[in-house]
Amino acid sequence: MPSESRSTLISETQPRVEVANALEVSELRFTYPGGEQALHGVNLSVAAGEKVALLGPNGAGKSTLLLHLNGILRGEGRVAVCGQVIGDANIKRIRALVGLVFEYPDDQLFSPTVFEDVCYGPLYMGLSSDEIAQRAHRALAMVGMQGFEERMPHHLSLGQRKRVAIATVLSMDAEILALDEPTASLSPGARRDLMGVMDELPQTMIVSTHDIPMVRELFPRTVILDGGRVVADGDTNVILSDASLLKEHGLEVF
Ligand SMILES: Nc1ncnc2c1ncn2[C@@H]1O[C@H](COP(=O)(O)OP(=O)(O)OP(=O)(O)O)[C@@H](O)[C@H]1O
Ligand SMILES: [Mg+2]
């Protein structure tokens, strides 16, 4: 090939950049020590920046799946975060990438003050005290909880504790947020406030919920889990208009 045409070819060829999915779950199976198999081969990919709702009846495996996303539980199969397969060697990095917020904030908050709880993650990451304090203040501001630094977490309302629990992962600069039933048991006002917070956050999100109006409002993509398997995955409006699919999996749209 003449050198001129080769250089043209080269200049016209775009470099191939492989962008890893934020989350890549393949054939994930998990059985609790008591013998209950909760996940039966889950496959799920979430691109960076996507906001995905995880629906399904009680016992479907939603919480179990979320617990695998930062390695709290380890099943058979493969879970990769930003291209890194979760393993012992990278677990610290994975915990910083995936901020998992439990359904019950009391499972997440254990320090004497809100500030210490929000500092805990960055402290674990080994950051300087200035950086830790900066991140903690920023995270509290993001969830509208600035001014609560010295309060005792257990003396806050449920909605406030849920916000602080989210701040504990925002302070780690998590790229992916995995939230388990964030609006459960909140009053309408607290729910609306928290939805505003979630709507503003730019992170990739996977959120388990029974709050279908919230899904319609905030999540373009919906995944339905039932019996430890993904039974539907697609556009939220399409999935939520499929009455027979919803009925089959114990979901109802009002
Ligand atoms: N710690 C545990 N030990 C044993 N089995 C468990 C444990 N946690 C959950 N399970 C079982 O695993 C299955 C999946 O439960 P999981 O909590 O993941 O469901 P879920 O979809 O989050 O339900 P919900 O909507 O009620 O929160 C259920 O059959 C449940 O009984
Ligand atoms: Mg659950």
Account of the protein in words:
A 6-stranded mixed sheet has the order 6-7-8-3-9-10, sandwiched between helices. It has a 4-stranded antiparallel sheet with strand order 2-1-4-5, with helices on one face. The chain is globular, with a radius of gyration of 20 Å. 38% of the residues are buried. Helix 4 (114-124) packs across helix 5, helix 4 packs parallel to helix 6 (158-170) and helix 5 (129-142) crosses helix 6. With 254 residues, it is an alpha/beta fold. It contains 10 helices and 10 strands. It starts with a helix and ends in a 6-residue tail after the last helix.
Helix and strand topology:
Blueprint: H1 3-12, E1 23-31, E2 37-46, E3 51-55, H2 62-68, E4 76-81, E5 84-85, H3 91-97, E6 98-101, H4 114-124, H5 129-142, H6 158-170, E7 176-180, H7 188-200, E8 204-208, H8 212-218, E9 221-226, E10 229-235, H9 236-240, H10 243-248
Parallel strand pairs: 3-8, 3-9, 6-7, 7-8
Antiparallel strand pairs: 1-2, 1-4, 4-5, 9-10
Helix pairs in contact: 4-5, 4-6, 5-6
The protein binds adenosine-5'-triphosphate and magnesium ion (MG).
CATH architecture of the domain at 20-102 and 167-248: 3-Layer(aba) Sandwich
* Poorly predicted ranges: 1-12
The count of helical stretches stands at 10
Portion in beta strands? 15-25%
| Major sheet size, sense and barrel closure | 6 strands, mixed
Mean pLDDT: 91
CATH topology tier name of the domain at 20-102 and 167-248: Rossmann fold
Order of strands in the sheet with most strands: 6-7-8-3-9-10
Within CATH, the superfamily of the domain at 20-102 and 167-248 carries the name P-loop containing nucleotide triphosphate hydrolases
Q: Give every kind of bound small molecule, once each.
A: adenosine-5'-triphosphate, magnesium ion
Radius of gyration: 20 Å
Order of helices and strands: HEEEHEEHEHHHEHEHEEHH
Q: Roughly what percent helix?
A: 25-40%
- How does the helix and strand content classify structurally? alpha/beta
Question: What is the C-level CATH assignment of the domain at 20-102 and 167-248?
Answer: Alpha Beta
Cα(first) to Cα(last) distance is 66 Å
Total strands: 10
